[in-house]
Structure formats: structure tokens, C-alpha cells
Specification:
Blueprint lengths: L17 H13 L7 H8 L6 H19 L13 H13 L2
Helix pairs in contact: 2-3
Length: 98
């Protein structure tokens, strides 16, 4: 989902490595929506590779992608062994960090 492929967020996903996406996921777990200066803290966590505004926009695009998927506008990809329950769990995981 956040891999920089051909998702609906287009150019905003360019320039994100797989490592940065994973680091971003970890940062979201550390700095939840109740954290003051959340996006600045996440930018520091990521070593300054992305600005706070870039991080916030990237997150907003991820949330929009999840909304499209949940609305049935984008089919869940069929990865080896990933069933609908696992896909739904992944979707709930992202929503909890909004």
C-alpha cells in the first residue's frame, strides 16, 4: 500500500523507499494522533529525510487509499496467503493511527 507503486496517490509516493515506508509505519505507532507536534516528531524520527508537511500529506494519501479500498472502489490485491480477514486487519491497523 505504501510502496510507491501505481496507487491513486501518484507522484506523492515517489521518492519513498521501502525502508522509509517501514520507518514511517513505526513512527506512526510511536507518535499517535494525540502527540503534540506529531508530524515534526515523526520527521525527527525519520532523520529529517522528509519534512513534516510531506509526512502529513503522505499519511493523508494513505488514509484516502484505505477509504477507497473500504468503499469497494479498489479490490484487495491477492498476495500469497493474504485472505480477506488479514486485509481487513491491515485496514483497521492504519485507521487506528489516524
Amino acid at each position: 500500500m505504501a510502496s510507491g507503486g501505481s496507487s491513486s496517490r501518484g507522484s506523492s509516493s515517489r521518492g519513498w523507499t521501502q525502508r522509509q515506508n517501514k520507518q514511517f509505519e513505526c513512527a506512526l505507532a510511536v507518535y499517535d494522533r494525540e502527540t503534540p507536534d506529531r508530524w515534526h516528531n515523526i520527521a525527527r524520527y525519520m532523520g529529517g529525510a522528509k519534512s513534516a508537511d510531506e509526512l502529513r500529506r503522505h499519511f493523508e494519501h494513505l488514509v484516502a487509499d484505505v477509504a477507497q479500498i473500504e468503499a469497494g472502489r479498489v479490490p484487495f490485491p491477492r498476495y500469497g496467503g493474504l485472505d480477506d480477514a488479514a486485509a481487513a486487519t491491515a485496514s483497521r491497523y492504519l485507521r487506528q493511527y489516524q
